Amino acid sequence: MSTSTTDDATTGAGAAEAGAKRVDPRVRRTRALLRAAVLELATERDPDTITIAHVAERATVNRATVYQHYRDRDELLLDAMEDELTSLVALVARCPLVVLPEAMPQAFADAFRHVESNVVLYRRMLGPCGSARFNDRLHQLVAEQVALHLVDAGLGPREAPGVQLRAQCAAGSFIALLSYWLRGADPLPADEAAAEAWRALQPVAG
Could you please report the per-residue DSSP string of the chain? Predict the structure, then answer.
């Protein structure tokens, strides 16, 4: 292939990538409206009772508009919760959940405080009538961070079965502790809940 042809192909690929990143402002506004609507609904009712019709009504659009942007309610919910997930997982990334230090890291308490700051939404999303897709996504992201911690601790390569199994176990334990805390009739304040959860993780990690 000639240099000219290669350059043209590279330029074309770059243009295509730039075009993919360029989103019509109207599309961004509509998606933001839909995300806000579904999150508002999720604070009022269990996610599995929310329908596309409910979202459309709350966002003051028609159902066809919702389907133009999202395949179903769960995809919309997951997209709407992405910022929450990003913030929570960033805190978890600073918390070793398998090779535990003696003292609880501040970031562990911060993770509980983050959840407490939006407790109604997290309680519904992680509850028995919540979003399985959200739960799976959170589990996946936490497990990825735990696997990185295990690699850094010299316990094997990231793809090793032992590393992956321990990462999955730790992620499941962490999410189960969050869920149990949130479902309580009179849940502890975040700092107390974090301290209890850290103690509960000790035998699991050990």
Answer: --HHHHHHHHHHHHHHHHHHH---HHHHHHHHHHHHHHHHHHTTS-GGG--HHHHHHHHTS-HHHHHHH-SSHHHHHHHHTHHHHHHHHHHHTTS-SSS--SSPPHHHHHHHHHHHTTHHHHHHHHSTTS-HHHHHHHHHHHHHHHHHHHHHTTS--TT-HHHHHHHHHHHHHHHHHHHHHHH-SSPPPHHHHHHHHHHHHHHHH-
pLDDT digits (tens, 9 = 90+) for 164-189: 999 999 999 999 999 999 998 888 99
Span 42-53, pLDDT tens digits: 999 999 999 999
**Residue 6 — very low, low, confident or very high, per pLDDT cuts 50/70/90?**
very low
Domains detected in the chain = 3-72 (no CATH), 82-205 (1.10.357)
81: phi then psi, degrees, rounded to nearest 5: -90, 0
